[in-house]
């Protein structure tokens, strides 16, 4: 039977045509005409002070903590459940990631857990829009304001989502986006940092480019300006090839998000009666970008056996995402029981805009059969039937 992949980026003829334009222009590197146009498009779409195109979301998070002045010994509270890039970014600057547990229903950072973790060394919070669902920014902002902390939104998975009528990515003073091939809008690898304060944007753009301005611009002015290096920067620039692809992808976000939302709805309807599964919930005040559709298996179900059975039928699946505090690299003794439990029991199933309704039906049938076969619960009468 035809395989059904977990992920499939929606890249086509229009993106190819945009790349061809870059080839013809002779400027494939970063901060050229396409990069600048993408940044203007992002700043306008999100209504922010500045948008900086960067090589990936990990780089955006790194530049965010640098711009916010996070340094050795500072504590930054990070969402525990999700790809552990925020905690890594905190470590890049020798600061201390402090892991906050998540809500059991939305899997996003629990504002009460954040409030409980604040110490005199806490300088800020990095919330994650877990697999595309925005966190509780009203409550988080209130806590951060009360304690004088910064708030960063890791919206890597959330391009296309909304919270209280506002776009994910623009829900905090800094938002970090990912355009990795597994996210809703993609250029293969790519990212952006959205900043309300243009001063932050300026700082980030300089640090993303070895601490000097655009090489493209330098070649296009009259005279011979020789740049001065005044601080250590990095090369985190996004190429103009990727920027051209993203200009097309940005125009398609609504359509691609609608398609994934329809498949999420189909999964949720077809699986609603399956008692061995808990399905994702979306609070009334926000919408999901559906970067991933994760089900939570009953504790009686052998997840590895279910995954092997699905993969045996050509159906892509995965463990969902990560609990950060259990990763050996972070050497923490903290406990985040909700996140740890989700990390054991969640399973991601195929979710992308190129799915077909009959493929979703096939996944549902296979998943339902597999969880029943591999449950040790006596509640499931009929078992493997
Ligand atoms: C994917 C992801 C990242 C990393 O994005 P890259 O663009 O691959 O660096 C960061 N944070 C979260 C929550 C992610 O899901």
Which CATH architecture of the largest domain?
A: 3-Layer(aba) Sandwich
Mean pLDDT: 96
Q: Per CATH, what is the topology of the largest domain?
A: Aspartate Aminotransferase, domain 2
Order of H and E elements = HHEHEHEHEHEEEEEHHHEEEHHEH
Strand order of the main beta sheet, please? 1-9-8-5-4-2-3
Active site: 183
Modified residues (N6-(pyridoxal phosphate)lysine): 183
GO molecular function: pyridoxal phosphate binding; transaminase activity
InterPro entries: DegT/StrS_aminotransferase (IPR000653), PyrdxlP-dep_Trfase (IPR015424), PyrdxlP-dep_Trfase_major (IPR015421), PyrdxlP-dep_Trfase_small (IPR015422)
How would you portray this structure in words?
- There is one protein chain.
- The chain has 385 residues and is of the alpha/beta class.
- It has two domains: 13-250, Aspartate Aminotransferase, domain 2 (3-Layer(aba) Sandwich), CATH 3.40.640.10; 254-384, Aspartate Aminotransferase, domain 1 (Alpha-Beta Complex), CATH 3.90.1150.10.
- 38% of the residues lie in helices and 14% in strands.
- It is built from twelve helices and 13 strands.
- It has helices spanning 13-25, 33-46, 57-67, 85-92, 111-117, 137-147, 198-207, 215-218, 240-271, 303-312, 337-345, 357-373; strands spanning 50-54, 75-79, 96-100, 122-128, 150-154, 162-163, 166-167, 174-178, 191-195, 277-278, 286-287, 293-297, 346-349.
- The strands form three sheets. Strands 1-9-8-5-4-2-3 form a seven-stranded mixed β-sheet, with helices on both faces. A three-stranded antiparallel β-sheet has the order 7-6-11, with no helix packed on it. It has a three-stranded antiparallel β-sheet with strand order 10-12-13.
- Helix 3 (57-67) crosses helix 4 (85-92) and helix 3 crosses helix 7 (198-207).
- The longest helix is centred in the middle third of the chain and has 32 residues, at 240-271.
- The protein is globular and about 80 Å long.
- The model has no long low-confidence stretch (mean pLDDT 96).
- The chain binds pyridoxal-5'-phosphate.
